Amino acid sequence: MKGLGRPKLHFTPPKGWMNDPNGLVYVDGIYHLFYQYHPFSTVWGPMHWGHAISRDLIHWIHLPIALEPDELGFIFSGSAVYDKDNTSGFGDEKKRPIVTIFTHHSNLGERQSVAWSLDYINFTKYIYNPIIENPGIRDFRDPKVFWYREKSCWCMVISAGDRVHFYRSNNLKSWDKTGEFGPEGNYAPGVWECPDLFPLKTSRGEEKWILIVSMGMSVDLGGSRTQYFIGNFDGERFICTEPARRIEWIDQGPDCYAGNTFNNIPDDRRIFIAWNMNWIYADKVPNNGYRGVMGFPRVLSLIETPIGLKLACDFIDALNRLKKEELVIQKSLELNTDTFYIEGVTDGRFTIQFVNDKDEVLTFGIDENNRFFVDRREAGISDFSEYFPNIYYAQRIFTDRCRFKALWDVYTLEILADNGTINMSVNAFPSKMYTRIVTEGNIDGKFYTLENIQRL
Ligand code: FRU
User: Fold this and answer.
1) What atom in ligand 1 is closest to the CA of residue 76?
2) Is 251 one of the annotated active-site residues of the chain?
3) Residue 371 CA, ligand 1 centroid: distance in Å
4) Closest CA to 226 of 290, 265, 275
5) Distance from the CA of 75 to the center of ligand 1, in angstroms?
6) How far is the CA of 377 from the centre of ligand 1 (A)?
7) How does pLDDT run across 138-168, given as a tens digit for each residue?
8) Per the residue annotation, which of 20, 142, 251, 418 is the catalytic one?
9) How many other β-carbons are positioned within 10 Å of the β-carbon of residue 277?
10) What order of strands is seen across the sheet that includes strand 238-242?
11) Is residue 455 predicted with pLDDT exceeding 60?
12) How does residue 329 score in pLDDT terms, banded at 50, 70 and 90?
């Protein structure tokens, strides 16, 4: 990545290797982001939990490592809750704990453990870990725990090979299994990882539960992708009600994996952060002392479309507050920044290209088959993996005008279109900064420079 800086709006680790976001939780006005972290190398290794905090999900402060590997194993993915009623007993009258629930990974199998903190910086592992033994399933990990209001209990959804299991608890320490979901029906074949489960309201006010599952698939199926299911949950079991006959991805690009949502956000907004990467080349992408980038935080909603309910994404509103200079999109535009944002409306086919003086070009738009596409085949450095240079498509369900947003941040592109039903996260590594935007088609659009939020 020589010559290329760090993304300015996207979270990256101080050094070393980062994969999944973990333990997303909001407490007292602060968003906590933990993450799968190997601080001593730019490739995956003994996993720790890194930790950072933010008030706006954009400016992050790095904190000390929260969890280190120990005699029970590496610290794999998991979640964090704010135990406001001190159900766990880890807190006291004055201070309520943040409790992390994570997987201990070792050759004794994957087992679940907990740790807690009263200062929200230093974590203590529970002496009676693990709290859930391995049930004889090799891949049994990534517990997502949340408070289930209707029955005043904690619920857990956890990956178990090619399905998820559900558990419940009153104290975060002792857990009972209540059900399973999958793999019958319409699912992508792979290892199910990093599940999440949460309610959203339809525009008619009906509550639906969304189950998110990251699918670790073979290379020919795209490697790492995140599927979602819409259905009902009664605190014990999830029943899928749609989509009935199709697989729905949360993001149709190649670089959005292991995403999860924040616990404990008071106004019920569902904010989602993913790892903007794909396992099939994650440890090969150019690096300058660190590898791994998180996706820009997105707000999730449910929308009605001609083919049924769909999960939709939008960038968090804070992005709008970073807009600086505004320019009208034209046939050609000179660039003097490597972090910018585009908002546009088009009546159909169009292309936008980011170009540099080495003739490297990253292209996106709508093609003649009404598909949104991103083409990174000629976008820059790509010889590190045969799977990287590629073109990606997302079929539109609408045929009328298309409203889209595109956020480019040094080497990561995120496109949202058609009310957030099209989402594409695509990394590209130009060997020199893109210096020009070239457009074709009828685009009524604005280009924004963004405030420079310099990081490490
Ligand atoms: C997903 C994943 C998780 C696991 C973690 C290990 O990317 O494979 O299932 O807990 O990464 O780092």
Assistant:
1) 10
2) no
3) 31
4) 275
5) 10
6) 28
7) 999 999 999 999 999 999 999 999 999 999 9
8) 20
9) 28
10) 191-201, 207-216, 224-233, 238-242
11) no
12) very high
Which pair of tokens denotes residue 424?
């594409």
258 close to ligand 1 (CB < 6 Angstrom): yes
pLDDT per residue over 79-134, tens digit each? 999 999 999 999 998 999 999 999 999 998 999 999 999 999 999 999 999 999 99
Three-state secondary-structure class, residue 235 = coil
Query: Which domains, ranges and CATH numbers included, belong to the chain?
Result: 16-315 (2.115.10.20), 318-450 (2.60.120.560)
Token readout for 191 is: 């290892």
- Cα distances (angstroms) measured from residue 2 to each of 281, 286, 315, 360, 375: 18, 8, 29, 16, 23
Residues 6+ apart with CB under 8 A from 68: 48, 75
Q: What is the pTM of this model?
A: 0.97
Atom of ligand 1 nearest to the CA of 159: 9
Backbone angles phi, psi at 317, to 5 degrees: -60, -25
Residue 107 CB contacts under 8 Å (≥ 6 apart), including other chains = none
| Beta-sheet pairing, 207-216 with 60-67 | unpaired
The response to whether residue 260 sits with its C-beta less than 6 Å from ligand 1 reads no
Tokens encoding 110:
């994957």
Q: Tell me if 414 CB under 6 Å of ligand 1.
A: no
